[in-house]
Amino acid sequence: MIHRYSDYQIMKNVNQARAAIDWVNEWTRRQEAERLLAAVCVNRPIIQGSTQELVYYIRRESDRCVKIGRSTNVIGRLRVLQREHGWCYVIATEVGSSALEAARHRQFQHLRRDGEWFNFSPDLINHVVAVLGGS
Predict the structure, then answer these.
(1) Cα–Cα distance list, 71 to 77, 96, 97 (Å)
(2) What is the pTM of this model?
(3) By CB distance 3.0 to 4.6 Å, which of 11, 36, 54, 65 could disulfide with 117?
(4) Each residue of 37-82: pLDDT tens digit?
(5) What is the rounded average pLDDT of the residues 24-30?
């Protein structure tokens, strides 16, 4: 018996295949970006005891989101976030005020999860690498 597929079934299968290919490509991009970040972040010193305002990038391990915030006491802020959210760590800081923080929030608006937490996509990873001087 010959089974004939309708045009709808064929298009559905083609679209599912395209979606699978897109997912694999995005996953590969993320893995490459993660490796680059790991190479740049190894043993990177964190600014402590600074009286300057810093824009910080703190990563939450549970869902790998990144908080973009501002503080003069980044380590103190990290401790508070760890009490509230579990394991978190500073991945980068840059000198800047509320204006820079607001600019970063606008720059990564398309990645916003909730509040000041953002999805850690290749766009944000590449920015963090640039902040760390990796590119």
Answers:
(1) 7, 9, 9
(2) 0.66
(3) 65
(4) 555 554 444 555 557 889 999 999 889 899 999 998 888 898 899 9
(5) 72
d(CA 130, CA 66): 16
Q: Mean of the pLDDT values across residues 9-19?
A: 70
The two tokens of residue 45 are: 């010193």
CA distance 15 to 13: 5
User: Is the Cβ–Cβ distance between 68 and 56 less than 8 Å?
Assistant: yes
Say how far apart CA 60 and CA 43 lie, in whole Å.
18
Give the count of beta carbons closer than 10 Å to the beta carbon of residue 130.
13
Length of the chain: 135
- Are 10 and 3 spatial neighbours (Cβ–Cβ below 8 Å)? no
